[in-house]
Amino acid sequence: MLIKRPDDIKASEITPESLYVNRRRFILTSSGAALAPLVTACAGAARADDQMPLAAARNAAFSTDEPLNDFEEISTYNNYYEFGLDKADPSRYAGRLTTDPWTVTVDGHVGQPADYAVEDLIKPHALEERVYRLRCVEAWSMVVPWVGFPLKDLIARLEPTSRARYVRFTTAMRPDEMPGLQYPYLDWPYTEGLTMAEAVHPLTLIAVGLYGKTLPNQNGAPLRVVVPWKYGFKSAKSIVRISFVEEQPATAWNVANPREYGFYANVNPNVDHPRWSQARERRIGRFFRQETVMFNGYADQVASLYTDLDLERNF
Description:
Blueprint: H1 18-21, H2 27-31, H3 35-40, E1 57-58, H4 71-76, H5 89-93, E2 103-108, E3 114-117, H6 118-122, E4 128-136, E5 140-150, H7 151-158, E6 166-171, E7 191-195, H8 196-199, E8 205-210, E9 213-214, E10 224-226, E11 239-245, H9 252-256, E12 280-283, E13 290-291, H10 299-302
């Protein structure tokens, strides 16, 4: 039976079913209270307003003209479970994450495998600002002015071979800096993946900043992926490894609960989450909900990627 929750439930009150149903994650139901003293002890809250400025011109061809969410909303309401389950936990506790120096390992079926300093991955690319919608599976959304460069340009530099059919991203795993890692509600480290066609699509962005400044830690510093037509959990944060693989990679939420989180995770208002409808969303900062649109409003650009795919079965 499909169970839907009322439309007025707050997104911050929604807990993914995998956090209390999966046997391996049962610890949360008995020790969730223990997380509070732990994260309280984490020194150095992330300061979202203390980022370095970046030079980037607006790319109007890849931007929406919808009203932006403000910097405070974008940087204090986040999903980043390595720092805690509450939406405010990342902004409170991500300041502990050391982002300099930072190394990204590139491996798999690729012509230029190596351990790269993050600045060496970024420097050759001209940065631009793109205003993208961000839609999360819990039925909340934002409009964010990201600063970055197309992932396809980085992929071209790395020279994947013909055997590379998918790109897998791995997020940092630092127990001393990320208090949430001690709780096994996901199989750490966090991993995500895209088909090669999705990865080289012009919309797919490597983001290194927002609102003209470097990324705050809670938003995925020093670099993350942004895939605007998919639910937010597909956009891996604080990336430490980019792997070019032949088989569809296992991804964190799909492994944790495949019934609720598919590999593709395209925004589709016609496919309900098993515990609530995805037909409407609440834009952070607004009171009323609005209709969710197919592919988060990017259907004209990306629908052709899925011509032969059943989007209800391959959710």
